[in-house]
Amino acid sequence: MKIGVLALQGGFIEHIGALHALQVDSFEIRKREDLQTAMDGLILPGGESTVIGKLLKELDLFHALNEQIQNGLPVFGTCAGMILLAKKIRGTDTAYFGAIDMEVKRNAYGRQLGSFFTEAAFKGIGVIPMTFIRAPYIEWAAPEVEILSEVNKRIVAVRQNNLLATAYHPELTADNRVHRYFIEQIVEKRGKP
Ligand code: GLN
Question: For residues 140 and 169, what is the distance between their CA atoms, to the nearest angstrom?
């Protein structure tokens, strides 16, 4: 198994570390040639979604990744990565992969509460640590989107088929159960009944 980690900007190193701790092989995606390596799953890290979105297009990565995503590639997006996966971003007509049927609000917690730590439940896993950094939350999600975590009545983690997204950063804690969920429940089960 090999997981591609988008490494254009933001916090990709920590994702590689979390995968390493699970003994899962990964490689960085920085340029078009990197896509010659076949991947079983993709991680879209946190960072600045507008910057990552722009670089994806400038580096000619967007269409090739989008095609794989539309074809069912398992993807795990954290924070900015979640924004890249959303069908709708509040207050703008821009969307990137548009693959999860939900609307997200960027920098949704305002300046005061821009970054915070809490613990809350992740469906099927239990209570996990959650680090939010200028995070989005999900304003609404279509019925086919499974809600995995809520904090203060806001949806902060979802799954739609092979796509997993969290507004928080599991890669910034030593708890790698969300990465394990991605690998075991989505990547390893892809294409199996
Ligand atoms: N505020 C960033 C954005 O809107 C996301 C922050 C993060 O990924 N930690 O893209």
Answer: 20
Give me the amino acid identity at 30: R
Q: Is 106 in the pocket of ligand 1 (CB under 6 A)?
A: yes
Q: What is the pTM of this model?
A: 0.97
Q: For residue 107, how far is its CA from the centre of ligand 1 (angstroms)? A: 7
Kindly list the domain boundaries of the chain, sorted by start residue.
Answer: 2-190
The pLDDT tens digits of the residues spanning 91-104 come to 999 999 999 999 99
Atom of ligand 1 nearest to the CA of 107: 1
**pLDDT tens-place string over residues 45-79:** 999 999 999 999 999 999 999 999 999 999 999 99
Going by CATH, does the domain composed of 2-190 fall within 3.30.930.10? no
Q: Which residues are catalytic?
A: 79, 169, 171
Tell me if 139 CB under 6 Å of ligand 1: no
Contacts of 117 (CB under 8 A, 6+ apart): 129, 130, 131, 132
